[in-house]
């Protein structure tokens, strides 16, 4: 992972956030999204398939954000997008694709999801990149992102010639992983004891 | 909809909940989940396809809840499932499948999603059915349900002989609708101004 250390603000393994769930509770959540050892294998394969396509994926996602003023809003202050912030987040977003596919979902993974969650929330928004932008990303859009992040990945999963069944397996595993992640990212927004 | 009035606690069109979003904000949320007029047409078709399969779908969903103690928990008090509650919810859940496919996403729809949200939350949990059960469904499971509700519907969408492209279209539309709904159901759990 030596190249990862070159990504500013990428603190995987170096955050000590209290995680919202224990590993036992995470396991129940994984059961709820039907996440099995087979999904883990499909995700690892997806990591191989997507590894050299992250820039193209980010082009799609950034095109989508950039073409929707209500989303670009969260990278902006008083209507002025912060280019440095957009570009700093983009590097970490690319690494997130790979991490989602290849990292074990353990305590370090949970802690970094919590760190990302806090960076969306007022708690830590804008701090990492010294950004000039809105003080929070509203939760409804974090959750709604499950859809574009899931639907737009399919073509990239299919781009390396795997058969339809394997692509569908990778796609379902990705969908489960993205939903799991979005659930964890909701934690700072939710009333105590209601998460 | 005359038969719908026979479902105890089904109050579509008869609730006056303040909705968390205006129609303009709902439109932005629909854009975020890539929900288009084409999805609306696919959802209507899905409503026709699923209309006589709701009991079979509910068998799958209830089998899934019943086989996971951490989910059955929310229909139970001190480990004792409330059969009357399970059965009352089941009837409304079947109607929800149809409503999700066929109702216009207007103010009445928003108001009823808010009513359902409050019935999951401490605000109104157990009141409608006089249930003996846990006082809240934790948000993480409401959100996690996006996955099983989406993945398990595919076979039912394919059961009436539509071609693969049409089934995929109905499936994507259903995924968007379920995610949209889950987002709205999160509202009572979220800090003021963070939704």
TrEMBL record, chains A, B:
Regions that span the bilayer: none
Residues covered by the Globin-sensor domain: 24-194
GO molecular function, one term: oxygen binding
Protein name: Protogloblin ApPgb
Organism field: Siphonobacter curvatus
Taxonomic lineage of the native organism: Bacteria, Pseudomonadati, Bacteroidota, Cytophagia, Cytophagales
């Amino acid at each position: 992972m030596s190249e990862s250390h070159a990504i500013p603000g990428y603190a995987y393994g170096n955050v000590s956030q209290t995680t919202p769930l224990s590993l036992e509770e995470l396991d129940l959540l994984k059961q709820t999204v039907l996440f099995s050892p087979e999904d883990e294998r499909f995700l690892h394969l997806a990591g191989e398939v997507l590894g050299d396509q992250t820039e193209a994926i980010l082009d799609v996602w950034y095109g989508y954000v950039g073409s929707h003023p209500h989303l670009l809003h969260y990278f902006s202050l008083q209507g002025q997008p912060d280019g440095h912030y957009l570009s700093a987040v983009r590097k970490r977003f690319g690494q997130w694709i790979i991490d989602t596919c290849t990292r074990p979902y353990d305590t370090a993974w949970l802690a970094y999801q919590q760190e990302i969650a806090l960076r969306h929330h007022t708690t830590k928004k804008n701090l990492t990149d010294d950004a000039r932008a809105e003080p929070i990303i509203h939760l409804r859009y974090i959750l709604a992102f499950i859809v574009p992040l899931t639907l737009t990945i399919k073509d990239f999963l299919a781009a390396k010639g795997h058969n339809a069944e394997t692509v569908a397996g990778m796609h379902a595993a990705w969908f489960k992983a993205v939903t799991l992640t979005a659930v964890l990212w909701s934690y700072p927004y939710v009333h105590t004891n209601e998460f």
